Structures are given as structure tokens and as C-alpha cells.
Amino acid sequence: MASRPIWQWSAVETAAAVRAGQASAVEVVTAHVERLHAANPALNAVVVDMTELALEAAQAADRKQAAGGELDALHGVPVTIKINVDVEGQANSNGVVAFKDNIAPADSAVAGT
Q1: Terminal CA-CA length for the chain
Q2: What is the mean pLDDT of each run of 10 residues along the chain (113 residues)?
Q3: For 65-71, which contacts have Cβ atoms below 8 Å and span 24 or more sequence positions?
Q4: At 103, is the secondary structure helix, strand, or coil?
Q5: Concatenated DSSP letters for 30-99?
Q6: Could you say which of 13, 23, 54, 106 would form a disulfide bridge with 9 (CB–CB 3.0 to 4.6 Å)?
Q7: 76 backbone dihedrals φ, ψ, rounded to 5°
């Protein structure tokens, strides 16, 4: 793992590293965000950049771990969610500009934690 950048680690490797204290959730998210910002201009795969929310969630995850809280199986592992899945407070446009103001009132089951 150490020979590869964090953003190349599998979800299992990432969760294990976070649990073991080899990387913090903030370090993991930061690595992924840096990769996103480097690669996405050419790909346009991520249409809504939620960097600030991801960093806030990572900080909360690190605080929970430091306090000895119960950790989920994928604690500290960042994910992206397609624009056709409800994420509370975010547009669920299904890629249709006319639906850009269709704001999800809550997380769908697949997006919630």
C-alpha cells in the first residue's frame, strides 16, 4: 500500500489504514480531492464538487475515531454518488438541466450512512 498513492487504495485497504492510524480520514479525503481536481477537468465525471462537505465529514470521522466511537466497516472511505441518487440538500437532476432545482429532501437508502 505504501508504494501507491492513497487514492489508488481499495476501500478495504483504506478502511484498514484509517482504523490502524496509518492515515486519517482527512488525509484520505485530501488525497482523493487532489486527484479529482487533477483528473476531472479532462473527464467531467464529477459534476458537483462537494469538497468542503467531504472534508467536514472526514473531520467528523476523525473526531469520532479519536473519541473511541463505534466505527462502521468503511469508516473513513470516501465515495462519489451519481447525480441520479438523492443526497439531502443536493440537486437530483438525473443529468437534465431542467431538473437542476430538484433538491433532495433526504438521503436515499444507498446514499445514507
Answers
A1: 26
A2: 90 97 98 98 93 96 96 95 90 89 92 72
A3: 65/18, 65/19, 65/25, 71/19
A4: strand
A5: HHHHHHHHHHHHHH---SS--HHHHHHHHHHHHHHHHTT----TTTT------TTS--TTSB--TT-GGG
A6: 13
A7: 90, 0
